[in-house]
Design goal:
Elements lengths: L4 E3 L7 H5 L6 H11 L3 H4 E4 L15 E3 L2 E7 L1 E2 L2 E2 L17 H5 L2 E5 L5 E6 L12 E3 H27 L20
Antiparallel strand pairs: 1-9, 2-4, 3-4, 5-6, 7-8
């Protein structure tokens, strides 16, 4: 674990874009729409617990639609992530990609009082974890804090969505809670 730096260099294997399901925040979706011009109905899907077996049932971002649970995710197609360029293994929206993608495959370590202890590479991910580069941990931590704030907003939106009950409610309705006024 590195307090100030962590050894890693991405070699564009595409593992993160092929084998990992990205769960963007509403802020990520708004950024992609604004900066790239992509339509959310093209790049967002709503997945079920069967797809996300490793996400706990108590996660506050599960959308409740008539007793069924859904979570917002970047659409997956045969090649992997909707935005993955098949030939180059590069992300089409690299500069606008979700914060979760930017933080992958780093794992945060905090003290009990919430202070940064450092970062390591997740042990349970299939990324080759090449260690021939160096990342400073402070920018990663700053990004983590921004993402944490976005997740707090996300949790609040989901809570309001889940309290709403109306005929014809579907997971896609969640997008209407933050996109019309933001785009």
């Amino acid at each position: 674990m590195g307090r100030y730096t962590v050894n890693f260099k991405c070699h564009s294997t595409g593992h993160c874009c092929k084998d990992v399901i990205c769960l963007p925040t509403p802020w990520d979706v708004v950024r992609i729409v604004r900066e790239v011009g992509a339509k959310p109905e093209d790049f967002i899907e709503f997945v079920t617990p069967e797809t996300l077996w490793d996400v706990e049932a108590s996660d506050p971002t599960w959308l409740d639609v008539r007793g069924e649970r859904y979570m917002m995710a970047l659409r997956r197609i045969e090649k992997g992530c909707f935005f993955l360029q098949e030939k180059t293994h590069y992300c089409e929206i690299y500069e606008s990609r979700p914060l979760l993608c930017r933080l992958y495959p780093f794992k945060l370590h905090e003290s009990r009082d919430g202070q940064l202890n450092g970062f390591s590479l997740h042990a349970d991910v299939g990324c080759p974890k090449n260690r021939d580069g160096v990342y400073d941990t402070q920018p990663l931590y700053d990004m983590y804090l921004v993402d944490k704030g976005h997740h707090d907003d996300y949790d609040s939106l989901v809570e309001v969505f889940n309290q709403r009950d109306y005929p014809g409610k579907k997971p896609e309705d969640f997008l209407d809670m933050f996109l019309p006024q933001a785009v």
